[in-house]
# Entry
Amino acid sequence: MRQKLRLSGKEHIAPWERALDRVLTPIEEFIHRQTTSGILLMLFAIAALIIANSSLAEAYHHFFQQHLTIGLENFQLSKSLHHWINDGLMAIFFLVVGLELKRELQVGELANLKQALLPIIAAVGGMLVPALIYFAINPSGHTADGWGIPMATDIAFALGALALLGNRVPQNLLTFLVALAIVDDLGAVIVIALFYTETINLTALALAALFTVSLVALNLGGVRRLFPYLIVGIFLWIAMLKSGVHATLAGVILAFIIPMKPKYDPRRFLSLIHTSVDKIEAAFRKDENIIVNDALRARVQALGSGVSLVQAPAQTLESKLHLPSAYLVIPIFALANAGVPIDWSNLQGIILHPVAMGIGMGLVVGKLLGIAGFTWVAVKAGICDLPRGLTMHHIVGVAFMGGIGFTMSIFIAELGFAHHPEDLLMAKTGILFASLTAGLVGFGWLYMTAGKQTDSAEPATTQTQP
# Structure
């Protein structure tokens, strides 16, 4: 029942009560935000495509090539806006990815090995087969460097498309896709670190190692405030930027070091909060106006600080960064990178280009064979069981959805073909057409094969009712 406040003998529903009543589990909150982000990402990608194929194309490309310089007289960082977005803003995205990975590995869908084994196997298949298909089409030369592009799955786009099916798909299919995509993200991070690194600057890399050790020392020293980690994290990012290892990996390193253990354990917190509430009530009786009642205001502020300290720093940071990452960083990345000029008169030649074909076949066919094929083999071999309520029809649909590569695929393409603009254009075109094809086919497949869930089944919802 909704709680009410009695003030001056009257009953009022506080405006913020809805926020307290609306309780989402971490997986529901993740799915909800990723779904909304997917829709926003789609809008910005479409806008970039329209602009890049209009009379504004030259102004669009010129804008993102402008240089922005920050720093002091003897130490400056000067990058184009495009590089600031891909190296700077995307570090926030990778920080969120790292935090999600850490949570899932410790307490989420991947914490139980038996439960996580099937999506792990599916994700490995979904990375391995597309890479092999691409490499079969591009076995040599600099175009072979794009083998990592079709390995990636865009979790925001995929979840957004899957969530549009509503109660035609069960909740645990969304959960399966989340686990699969998170393992996929981990694979992409490893691939970027190992295979898409430029010339190494050993001095800068040594500094990055020093800052990493400093972060570990903060963790082991019991520091549970976020501020010191974020400050050292900025210096780690700068060192990584200068080292030749891609700077966004600093976000992943920082995420895995930020503590998952809170300062207060829940039992101690309950004891402290009861004492705090008693003190707040005593101060409230003296004067109801919190503006002039310094004691009341101080007690409320102390309660707020205690609430933040009972949460794990990693959990708090992930919650705070989800919104700017999903609603700001990723849409800006799409706007800056999805502006691909398409020569419609030579569309067949573009699609048949080895780079575009390798990516297209990898994302559409490779993801299907890798995810669905590896899952089928694992189930038939008795290694794993399908989650309750799921059939291979569901897995095939998710396998198609896994072919939506977009964000991470474009990111890897920028790294792999940084010095080959024509191949980069072919890669982005292949990513866009393949992601669109995979998304539409996957949506259609699930719409036709997955009937609406019965009332007894758990619907694919992203919000619980109070």
The CA atoms of residues 15 and 327 lie 25 Å apart. The chain is about 70% helix and 5% strand. The chain has a mean pLDDT of 81. Residues 21-197+246-262+311-449 form a domain with the Na+/H+ antiporter like fold fold (CATH 1.20.1530.10).
